[in-house]
Each structure stands twice: as structure tokens, then as C-alpha cells.
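Dear colleague,

Thank you for sharing your sequence with our group. We've completed the structure prediction you requested, and as agreed, I am returning the results in plain text so they can be pasted directly into your records. Please verify that the sequence below matches your submission; if there's any discrepancy, let me know and we will rerun it promptly.
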Amino acid sequence: MLERLRKLICVSLLAATVASVFGTNAFTASNTTVSSRGGAGSGAISGYAVTNVAYTTTAGDITSVAFDLDGPAKDVSVTLSASGAQYHCGAAASLTFRVTCVTAERAASADGLTVVASQ
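Please find the predicted C-alpha cells below.
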């Protein structure tokens, strides 16, 4: 009787294992994935040359600043003082790399021009 119970348990386990292998195979065979990319790397960051800076003022306020970059940039922003607001300018013009940024800062409080640009 005990031997018969052992055989029944062994057969049941074998059947469960076989069913699980085929069942798992059926589920994995139907999966599809979208191609994607990932990775990490490093490289030199060279920066931009900023030239031909021109400010537009109205009633003591700097209302815009325009300048040229020496290459393409997708996102450009400027600050006119250490404690002032950051103004988002958008992208540099495609051929001339000219950037014009609308600002609203008192000329008296402007103490510098900081340009942040990224490709």
C-alpha cells in the first residue's frame, strides 16, 4: 500500500513538472517586446562661445537679450544677475545659431550674463 502511494505521488509530481514546462513554454513563446536602447557613456563637454551680445532696454528694464552661439543648441536659458530669474529662450536659430530671449529685469540689478545651453 505504501509503495503504491509512493508511485502515485511520483507520477503526480512528474505530470505536474511536465505540465509546468509546457505551460511556461507556451506563455513565453507568445511574448513580444518593443525594441529599445539603453546604456551609459562619457565624453568631453566643451561649452559654447557666446558672441555679439545685444540688450534691449525700455524704461530702465532689460526686456530682451540676444546673442550668437558657435553651434546648435536645443535648449537655452539666461540669467542676468546672481539672484535674478532664469529666462528660458528655447532653441538657437538653425543656421545662424542666434538666440533671442525675452526678459524682465531691472537694468540696475543686472550684474552679469549667464548662458546655459544644451544640445
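Summary note from our side: The helical segments are 2-29.

Kind regards,
the structure core
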